[in-house]
Amino acid sequence: MDDMIQKKMKARADAVFYISSARRSSGKVRDMLARKGHDPSLIEEVVNELISDGRIDDRTAALSIIRSRKGSKAESSAALIKRMKRLGIPANIAVQAVKEEFTSHQDDFENAFDLLNLKFSSKAYTIHSDEYEECNKFKSRMYRFLMSRGYSEGVAASAVMRFMEENETDGKSG
Description:
Radius of gyration: 23 Å
Number of domains: 3
Shape: rod-shaped
């Protein structure tokens, strides 16, 4: 058998084995094949064949990542795009998947607000509006938390403000 055909079959076998254990992006498959020392032109050919065969589906992988980062693991749409690119999903597919799941800027705000409710609602009732210093520390903590999840300054500030408005106590009850 021709040496090039054998190399291609080996590259394809390595790729199929790699994707058999978990859903992998085209970028991750390319990286793995390159680490194994396969020829770059063969890598592209094998990956494109696997995409054509439906064995690699970057869109499905992207949507899976987005859905796995909901609730207490929520991230902003920008952070999700960065995550997907790090995981080897092409930028255009990552952006399109986020557009499908997040229809507007409001979705980022709602996700941020929901995340605050999940993470901080039990602590909110121990902070009273008349405890200015404690209240500011609590707001700063929530703001930093949202910023660490990739939310913009405006979204983080608005979500914290709404959270505090909806959870404010006057310090006189209880």
